[in-house]
Amino acid sequence: MQIPGYTLKSKLGQGGMASVFLAVQNSLDREVAIKVMDPRMADDPAFCERFLKEGRIAARVSHHPDIVTIFDIGQAAGFYYMAMEYLPGPNLKDLLKDGPYRGDTLAVIRQIAGALGMAHAEGFVHRDVKPANILFKSDGSAALSDFGIAKSVSNETQLTAVGFAVGTPEYMSPEQAMGQSLDHRSDIYSLGVMFYEMLTGEKPYLGQDPFSTALKHINDPLPVLPVEQGDYQPLLDGMLAKDPAARFPDAAALIAAVDQLRETQTRTQELIANPPRRNKSGLFVMLAGLVMLAVGAAAAWWWQPAAAPTAAPAPVVHKNLTEEERARVTRLLMVADAHRGMGRLTEPPGSNALETYEMVLSIDPANNQARQALEEIRQETD
User: Fold this and answer.
1) Would you state the pLDDT for residue 292?
2) Would residue 128 show up in a list of annotated catalytic residues for this protein?
3) Residue ranges per domain, the chain?
4) pLDDT tens digits for 126-154?
5) How far apart are CA 92 and CA 8, in angstroms?
6) Does CATH place domain 6-85 in 3.30.420.40?
7) How far apart are CA 275 and CA 13, in angstroms?
8) Residue 64: CB partners within 8 Å, gap ≥ 6?
9) Cα–Cα nearest to 357, from 327, 341, 337
10) Is 37 helix (H, G, I), strand (E, B) or coil?
11) In the CATH hierarchy, which fold is given to the domain comprising 92-260?
12) In this structure, how many other beta carbons lie within 10 angstroms of the beta carbon of residue 212?
């Protein structure tokens, strides 16, 4: 195989319709990855059009730092090829073979959301967001690749039959699994599936075959993260909502939520590492105030006529929390506040502000923040 201007060195991988080679671009003496369409597909105009379309789409958006750069596309001696940035490291799929992602998960999600935002702004839906299409640059940043089945939302040209689902079943949105028309929120769902897999090392929906997997995306409830990862749940729910209207409306909103979560996590870690301490004078003032209140209450009782006994309110139990309990309360309050900020006051069951604040009180019955929030929520929902 000869491609003018390039010297092929070795084969890097092979997919269903193309192979990827390591090559040298002779004019610039730089290593590139060359994707070459299987010659047997050259007789099929639809495959040829899809291959060239991928190159044109990727070239339009590849000036974004988190999208693999396309240098050249063309045809030579019957071979359709695409020259692109060479990223030698393992892809995200390789890194997830041994379990959850060990790097900065939120950083990867933010970077790929930014890449998708660029594609969406250009009018394209990627339709195949998955770990195998997430590569890593030398500085460790993630890059989105493979726009092979991307589609313009404004272009009515169909390369596949209506009602036929195109993509990878494990990462398909419900509307994609049903072969319906898609918009950018389908990519956000697929990114949410990848997010869950990065956190847990497992796919949220996996059937015995592609069809049963697709049905799980359509019908099964939202996955619930382990308790220790509960602070990620509101973000995950906003990405994996079955109804596109209930998801983050666009990549920018998702990025804002990621940034807010990261900021809250940073503050939480700082509080856990450096819990606020009362000085002695402050403690004395507080105790003196309590004594004066007690004396005033006793005097008022002495000078008032006896009244009929009334049921006393249930006493608030003050506990000495362990360090682990304090850390869990802090995390739960962060999750509850996030639910409340998204309007998830009492729904959906098992993932809402009301139930999360109640979990806080089950650990720390005297927690004023949770008690006040619960009162406000009950007033809002009455």
Assistant:
1) 45
2) yes
3) 6-85, 92-260, 275-290+317-381
4) 989 999 999 999 899 999 998 766 666 55
5) 25
6) no
7) 52
8) 114, 115, 118
9) 337
10) strand
11) Transferase(Phosphotransferase); domain 1 (1.10.510)
12) 12
Helices marked H in the chain: 45-61, 92-95, 105-121, 174-177, 184-200, 210-219, 233-240, 251-273, 280-303, 323-341, 353-363, 368-381
Average pLDDT, the chain: 82
Strands 70-76 and 79-85 turn out to be antiparallel
Distance CA 330, CA 238 (A): 22
Give residue 297's pLDDT.
39
Tokens representing 282 are 């402050």
Peptide bond into 348 cis (omega under 30): yes
Tell me what the mean pLDDT of segment 71-84 comes to.
87
pLDDT of 251-294, one tens digit each? 999 999 999 999 988 888 887 777 666 555 555 444 444 444 44
Output DSSP code: residue 163.
Answer: T
pLDDT at 156: 42
Residue 299 CA neighbour count, 13 Å, CB half: 6
- Whose tokens are 């209140």? That residue is 293
Identified catalytic residue from 44, 104, 128, 139: 128
Q: What is the pTM (predicted TM-score) of this model?
A: 0.71
